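Subject: mismatched residue count in predicted assembly?

I count 882 residues in my input, but I want to confirm that the predicted structure covers every chain. Input:
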Amino acid sequence: MQDRKTTFIPVESLLTHFMEVVPPLRKKDAMDESNRCLYCYDAPCITACPTGINIPQFIKRMAQENMKGAATTIMDANPVGASCARVCPTEQLCEGACVLNDASKPIMIGMLQRYATDWAIENNEVLFKPGEYNGKKVAIIGSGPAGLSTARELARKGYKVTIFEAKELAGGLNTYGIVSFRLPQSIALWEVDQVRRLGVEIRTSTCIGKDIQPQELMGEYDAVVLAIGMGNVPDLGIEGEELTGVYDAIELIEDTKSKELDDRFIGSRVAVIGAGNTAIDAATCSKRLGAVNVKILYRRTENEMSAYPFEYEFAKQDGIEFRWLVAPKRIIGEGRVQKLECIRMELGEPDASGRQTPVPIPGSEFTLEVDAVVKAIGQTRHLELIEAFGLSHSHGVIQVQQDTFQTSQAKVYAAGDCIFEKGQGEAMVVEAAQQGKLVAQAVDRDLMTDADSEEIAS
Amino acid sequence: MADLRINLAGIESPNPFWLASAPPTNSGYQVMRAFEAGWGGAVWKTLGEPIINVTSRFAALHYNGQRVAGFNNIELITDRPLDVNLKEIYETKKRFPNHTIIASLMVEPSQKKWHEIVKQVEAVGVDGLELNFGCPHGMAERGMGSAVGQQPDLVRQQTEWVKEVAQTPVIVKLTPNITDIRYTARAAAQGGADAVSMINTINSLMGVDLDSWNTIPHVDGKGAHGGYCGPAVKPIALNMVAECARDPLIGIPISGIGGISTWKDAVEYLLVGATGVQVCTAAMHHGFRIVEDMIDGLNHYLDAKGISSVRDIVGKTVERYSDWGHLNLNYKIVARIDNDTCISCNKCHIACEDTSHQCIERVPDETGKVRLIVREEDCVGCNLCSIVCPVEDCIEMVEIRTGEPPLTWNERQAALTKPDSKTG
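Triage response: the counts match. Full output below for your records.
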């Protein structure tokens, strides 16, 4: 094993594998492309964007070399617009809706958005101002896309906002959960900084339920917003899961964004279980950490996987192998992973969601020689915290009223992945950002109505 | 292949594409390169008393990412000694006897000076003369160029002086910086000019630097108006050529100049009455080689139309160009939108709604897709929707039969004022 590691690349050179893969547009590219935009009236790209960015407007401003105006249009609608420029499935959203799909080729909206927000980052722009303090305080738990978005909107309305973040750095998924070569951490941290500069206090390394109890928050703040996202990957529930060399995909990706890159995968063979976007990220991450062979094992087929087409394409470019209709059965090894026993599957009857249920084919077991197994079969919920707040939930999904984002507790709201239920839209960063805006509106509506009635009463 | 030869007031040329008198025709080296590339003729950079130029000299208008929609300059006439230019004209003509060389001339408004220079340039074998009554900057301040071209009397008088000694055809180049160019064109004809050429450049200030607040271009912090040319001036120039071509008081051939960048532009000039064209900005933007594409495009166009000589298209549009008072008031067209090729950018809708006659409606069909429908009874046939539509041929302007006989404004007014129309 040691020999094999030294045969391959030195660990220092791994760093280059984690640099952003897609190069930015050059100035001429950006100018040509922005001038190509038709500036549609009632443009379908705006409707297709969950945050409703006025896309023709920001592109027109770019074409007029008003970069600050362009960046402001983007970030006004989407507080994590710089991250979304990189991680949004644009061909399903804005670019998919571009009218030029029917005449030539769609405008590269994501790349233009990245160009404009990069400009703001490079020029240290602070794009928004806090509103005049209105005497109300709001606590937000979690500083991911939904939490940041809520905080930004409330701060602009004049609320005193405090974000509580369990991790050392703010930004949540964008800071820790998306591979650096797609979304560099500096981008997410800039978005955090934009929110911080509005006077929002971000208390990192502060875990609600441990360092501060929910009751304290509910007592001290006029409203509490849960934007706590999801947890780690659940267990596979098979033998051998405790062996060294079994990884949680979320933790693996987080390690590459928060620690020095190490040689754990150099020269190794990795099996990733699952075929969502996190599985793809974990697979490409493993490859870039020096793995010689990375296989994605999925119990269904290409047609059922939840990874975006561009993620799938990216993984194939990175040399990731895909094994469809295969499920892990047992991880074998003495102390550390040596083999993975798998079984072949076939698709059976459709389940409640309409997807065909995979069924094992008896006697089809086979064994793969692997050095590591990465689990990427979904994410757990922060059940303990949800219950500590006494919120109604369904299997860890916080139940909220559709328009108000109000939980079963009057002063407590929730947004983002923690209210995301399978089969209801997509757990996208851009969706969480929009929910943050909506929950901020709901909180404002409720607190200001209260304030009005108090005034009338006195 | 069609016959591309032209004959402009007795000046023969292998094709209608000449380089205008400007930086591209500054020297023998350049004009020889141009002839090698295929240009039929060249009007030499204006000869006269050598001047002193400034730096910088040029600036351009870029539009929505496209370079050089318009161009201006504050360069003066040739800054090289006359004898050097004459020697190079002689050498060039000797090497390219079948190509056309015209000497552009500008001297002080004196009969003697004009006589001298005409004799000098004709002695080296030029095919014709072009009197520069158009240059709008610098030289005009000294009583030459457009200072002459803005006064019909001066145009006539100085043309006459030239004609007193000229052996070769005389073209008078006119300035557009005037209320009605026909007056100076008529003056040139009265002075005996064999042809007119138009337009010279239009007075212009290209821009202002938003950071330094200097003009663009500027010379050590100061600017002065320049002469504007390039694609953006074509419609202005085309109108002037067309107006002169249909004016019976002018009646001499026209060499068309102004924003010609492609063979299509050239064909348009010929159709409205130019016998040949002169080009500058396009060559300055792309080099001499663009003439190959102009010749090729013109050839294919003529072949496709079954026209054997380029001379046969000259002036074909003249009779179709008139005054507003002769337009048929009973002709009606309306917009029809092809919803199969429509990409739903809604540009036609908002243009009509905000700035025209509010007759394009957005109507959801049974599938929920919004279709754009023209309320034809309210459509005035203005063309705006089809202009802003990014899809070629998606919006068609179709004729609606009104059943009314043609009636022009002039006819209508004449009928109203007839005595018997009142009595019935």
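Chain B has 14 helices and 20 strands. Marking this ticket as 'not a bug'.
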